[in-house]
Amino acid sequence: MRKSVWIGIDVGGTKTCLDLFNDDLEKMGDIKFKTPGGRKQFAVQLTHSLRQFVNEAAGRGLRISGIGIGAAASINPRRETIKSAANLPFLTGFSFKDTVRPVCQCPVMLLNDIQAALYGEIKMEKCCWL
Question: Which CATH number fits domain 3-124: 3.30.870.10, 3.40.50.720, 3.30.420.40, 3.40.50.1820?
Answer without folding.
Answer: 3.30.420.40
